[in-house]
Amino acid sequence: MTLQELLAQHAQRATSSVPDWMLGFFKRYSISFANGTTDLHTHVCWLQSRNFTIDLRLPLAADQAPAKPLDELTAAELGVLANNEGWAARSDWDGVALSWRPTDVSLQLHNRWPEPAILKRIGNCMVEFCESDAYVEDWRLQPSRPGPLIGLQLIEEREVATGTVRHRGGGLIVCGDYAALVLGRSAPIETGDDVPLKTLVAQAGSSVKRLQQLFNFETSVAHGSLSTGFGVMLSTQPARLGQPLFPLNGFEYVPANNVVHQLFDVGGMQVERTFSIDTLEPNVSFDQTTCFSSSALQWFEKESPTLDRYTAPLYKNL
Asked: What was the pLDDT predicted at 102?
């Protein structure tokens, strides 16, 4: 069945959840640091399901590594690829701060963002502080029609004929007009110490086998729909740009384990993904607004000739 049919026939909502105002696709507008500097340019994407997050962080297109085989990239280009960030992680909300479980599935081998996110949202702007006051981030909910909220956490992806595991851990989030996919490495990278990925990539030199092991990971963000598919717009794998994020069919619900299987073809080889279900909701509204209190609304309406003089919605292009 298609993912759309799966959603129609087996809809279910997670019993626990972050607040509804946190759901959807946010793109970072800015990050400001305690030293007085601000970054307006890095592509940073946050997609939130009920109980897990997908995160992607990339430089501008001109500064990204080219879409070439690993053995054709220069040392400098491999270094750029090794500095990309992408991850999926279970998220816990305590009413003030959002934290992520230590079982994160991440391209990076160390946690670059260890602090919980202290969050508040007004309108389409979600502001994130950290406990140390090292930075503050301004996130913007991207406009989307009401639509599905799908959260599927990847258990594994394997070749059907051989049983070989291709990827373990990660997930798929669909939120209205946007979707993101994370495919974790088939096996953990054993380092013994908190060694950064970029160091291991530099040490790998021209060993294609080692580089393939280190870069056997994907985080991609896409735009589209369940009826026409989602086209990749940003990815830790440059060759994925413009490709379909995932096949729309081949899904099967297994009620005994409350899991979802997806069977599809990759270059003539059958591959199966197994997902646990976070949530399967056919229609969620990703509202750009939040509520005024009655007194605040009266103030806004009274002072609107000046307050509303130059206002317009502010987003961050994908």
From this structure: 64
